[in-house]
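can u pls check wat happens w/ magnesium ion
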Amino acid sequence: MPEISLGIIGSGQLGSLLCQAAKKLNIKTVVISDDEQGPAQNYSDQFIFAKYDDKDKIKEFISKVHVVTYEFENIPFEILKSIDKVRKVLPKPDINKIIQNRKLEKTFVNDLGIRTTEWAFIKSVEDVKKNEKLLPGILKTNTLGYDGHGQFVLNSLDDIKKDWCFTADYILEKKVNLKKEISVVISRFVNNEIYTYEPIENIHKDQILKYSKIPADITGEIFKKAQVNAKLIAEKLDFRGTLCVEYFIDQNNNLLVNEIAPRVHNSGHLTINAFNISQFENHVRAVCGLSLKKVQKIANAEMINILGEEIEEYRKKSYNDREFFFDYGKKAIKDKRKMGHLTVLKN
Ligand code: ADP
Ligand code: MG
């Protein structure tokens, strides 16, 4: 196999895990990041510290790689597009344009005949008043949200404070009485082959993922529908790489798409140990043009996200051969920051 060099934009834990997967495949990695301390530099073959609009640094980055991917979706579209003119960016930038914008994302999903939460596009207080039927609801910034950032709960119109300024565009979503949250991780390859992992059950705390497990405790019907929807989404986007569809299941067993992540996903971390081929390896294989290899499940599993200072205690523990502790090696411990995770294999 000729040597392949993969460019990765972003240097957090997802970037680190992508670099590790690439290493296994003898694929070289070059990471570019605006975080000088980004942990992925500990695993990449080369690291470029730069602002994403630094044209010279981007040029240097492009010159070193054959194909470019990214670990987070909030990279400005214009930057991805300009890179794509010289080196292929996968998943393609047009997909990112849809998914980084909640309005376009939900419209895309609804147009496929797939249900989301009920929602409305909001530009002003007047728009909220017009959509009072969506309360209690959650107001989310239309772009740039993650881990619950940019979200505001509105139980009634009284919650819109007089001094509220609508400085950005928002989406107002009806609050779902959740029975469960699940996600489906799916990888799509160069010849349109697809591998769909089984649905993963997720528990969030303060809007941050805390715990994931397989098998998800869901009906066979929901299992199938969640996978079929994810496949349709990946196909319609002409997606290349690994994608994750986050779902809500309401009290009446309705399956609703919450959001799509056009990348490897935190809930899929358990695939590293529970499958012979992880979401990361499948992503690297797909964007580098390798074909799908037979994916096999090794065991059921649970994954716990380790946030903030919790990491200190996990660093001191010892682990057996069914427990896999990942320390992301982030220099600064911050409240609620994802510092590591633990996967435990089950029978
Ligand atoms: P982020 O982009 O920050 O991941 P999400 O829209 O996925 O934002 O919201 C994070 C979490 O907040 C969800 O996984 C869920 O637990 C909760 N949440 C978000 N929207 C709703 C909703 N409409 N109804 C009920 N819970 C919600
Ligand atoms: Mg989410």
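Residues 246, 259 surround magnesium ion (ligand 2) (CB under 6 Å).
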